[in-house]
Specification:
four-stranded parallel sheet, 16% strand, five-stranded mixed sheet
């Protein structure tokens, strides 16, 4: 047990811990930029968390471990002056133009500038930002005029993906954040998941904006612009309008999208139900044919990139069913024109996603049918919030409305896609019914829920037992493969989501500050919205979706066959 004093009060701990962690545990505020509790980012890069230790002078609280008898001050005049001076140094290399900045409402750096009353010694003014901005990627943009070199992106990439795709590198006299070998993100082994973007405290990392694409389409009288949001968007949008965490804003989102001028408001949950129709059919076929096993889910584009870049030998094991985004897009350019009377070439399909990798997926050259792109534009949850605010829509006061029914109906299975384990559970509900030709009532698969990195279970289908696994987070894929589990045990169906917690914690979701992450696990709270919807929806299996049944009966035919297979499936191949 170590006993020490902080700001005149006595504290004791029997743990090997840093001054910063002990202070946080006791609600003592120490400013910091580089520290992220869920990324082990005790790297000491920002230099903001200095405290005064009697006999030692100023030290960094995030890298200094507590010792018996320490006398620490976190708010002495010496500390306050040192923190202010360090903030001034950071401002000397930071373009301090908050008005047009996309992080002005939740910039952690700005909050510290205001708190410390710091001012730049020499304002950092850049007339031409071209050399500082890397926008080569289809998903992620770096703006080095905003970077404070905190290293949170580096820590997040290492901890959450295991790929170490973004790092500090030497650029002449400077040290900068960059992808591997300073290449375009897309040309490296980066997964494009955006966890680095989510970790960034400023606007140094952001998604590749498609707002201009969408605005141009909305202003084009010849375009019939349809929109659909992913399950996870409704779990988090309220956060960006000061409505708190875990608030279901589905109905308000439909209304907001109509107010923005979209011609039809549908739902990617319909696409999720479509994916299950195809994926569950494929699983049943593999069961009948005794393989090939395991079948991996293919919904997450960051996971697909992980397979392409690290485990190409597993490409044959990926389900050929397109992701909910792409499967919805394919139907929007084929089936939808037949029921709307609108020419396919005039249909412009926009999706709202919690994910930055979805932008890359949508723009893949292969993702088209008969010369028409499946998806024309992808905006993140954050981008949609910006559009709503720019249109001066009072989101919190909007009345609820419903999605347009043709491709807006969905089941509970479709909505839980946004949480880790959700795709597995949705697929099992339908696959078991299909294989046993029954309407089964036991549809809860609690064993695949939760935030464990690797979840395993055995399920019974048509009298036989099948081994399943759910891998939560890209870094755990590497652990799973390295463990040799696939060599020692026959798995039949494996779900993978690259972002820890699933899409609810995607790289395009609202930013959550380091301080807020200490108080709340947004993965659990956001996922609860989806499970609550599932619990209360009248239909909870994808194959019960009435609008979906109509589409198959009138246009697609049987799942996994004919037109459905041509439009709704895609086989990834090894890169040449």
């Amino acid at each position: 047990m170590k006993t020490l004093t902080i700001n005149g009060n006595t504290y004791a701990t029997n743990e090997l811990t840093t001054i910063l962690k002990l202070a946080k545990e006791n609600n003592i505020d120490i400013p910091t930029l580089c520290y992220l509790n869920d990324c082990n980012s005790e790297v000491g890069n920002c230099g903001v968390c200095v405290v005064e230790v009697e006999g030692k002078g100023l030290v960094k609280a995030c890298t200094t471990y507590v010792e018996e008898g320490m006398v620490i001050s976190t708010n002495s005049p010496v500390v306050e002056e040192a923190v202010k001076a360090r903030m001034a140094q950071l401002l000397d290399k930071h373009e301090f133009k908050c008005g047009p900045c996309n992080r002005r409402e939740n910039c952690e750096f700005l909050k510290l500038v205001i708190k410390t009353k710091a001012r730049a010694n020499k304002p950092f003014v850049i007339a031409d930002k071209t050399a500082f901005v890397d926008n080569r990627s289809k998903s992620i943009v770096i703006d080095r005029t905003k970077c404070v070199s905190c290293g949170r992106c580096v820590a997040a990439c290492k901890e959450k993906t295991g790929t170490c795709s973004i790092n500090f590198i030497k650029d002449g006299e400077d040290t900068i954040i960059a992808p591997t070998d300073n290449k375009c993100f897309d040309d490296t082994n980066c997964l494009l998941c955006g966890q680095c973007v989510a970790a960034c405290p400023v606007a140094a990392l952001s998604e590749k904006s498609h707002i201009e694409r969408v605005t141009e389409a909305l202003n084009d009288s010849e375009k019939h612009v349809i929109v659909a949001m992913a399950p996870s968007v409704r779990t988090a949008m309220g956060e960006l309008f000061k409505m708190g965490y875990g608030v279901d804003v589905t109905g308000k989102l439909y209304t907001a999208l109509r107010n923005l001028g979209f011609d039809k408001v549908f739902d990617i949950n319909f696409g999720a139900d479509m994916t299950i129709m195809e994926e569950a059919t494929e699983l049943v076929q593999r069961i009948k044919n005794n393989g090939p096993f395991p079948m991996f889910t293919s919904c997450c584009p960051a996971w697909v990139r992980e397979v392409e870049n690290y485990y190409p030998e597993l490409l044959e094991n990926l389900s050929s069913a397109k992701s909910p985004q792409q499967i919805f897009g394919a139907a929007s350019k084929t089936y939808y024109p037949t029921i709307s009377g609108i020419e396919a070439k005039n249909v412009y399909t926009v999706t709202i996603m919690p994910c930055t990798a979805k932008k890359y997926e949508a723009d893949r050259p292969e993702m088209e049918n008969d010369g028409l792109r499946n998806i024309d534009a992808v905006i993140t949850t954050r981008e949609l919030a910006k559009m709503i605010k720019d249109a001066k829509i009072d989101f919190a006061k909007l009345e609820d409305s419903a999605a347009d029914p043709a491709m807006g109906e969905y089941t509970g299975a479709g909505t839980i896609f946004g949480a880790t384990g959700g795709v597995m559970e949705a697929a099992l509900r339908t696959a078991k019914d299909f294989a046993e030709n029954k309407d089964l009532h036991q549809i809860e698969y609690e064993q695949v829920r939760g935030l464990n990195g690797i979840k395993e279970a055995a399920v019974e289908i048509a009298g036989n037992e099948y081994n399943i696994a759910v891998i939560n987070g890209a870094a755990n894929v590497f652990e799973f493969i390295k463990s040799g589990k696939m060599d020692s045990k026959q798995y039949h169906f494996i779900e993978v989501m690259a972002c820890p917690g699933g899409c609810v914690n995607g790289g395009g979701q609202p930013h959550v500050s380091a301080a807020e992450r200490e108080k709340i696990d947004v993965r659990t709270v956001r996922a609860s919205v989806l499970y609550n919807q599932d619990k209360h929806l009248p239909k909870r299996k994808s194959h019960e979706n009435g609008a979906l049944i109509k589409m198959y009966d009138e246009y697609m035919g049987k799942p996994g066959e004919g037109i459905a297979h041509k439009l709704l499936h895609f086989k990834y191949k090894k890169k040449s």
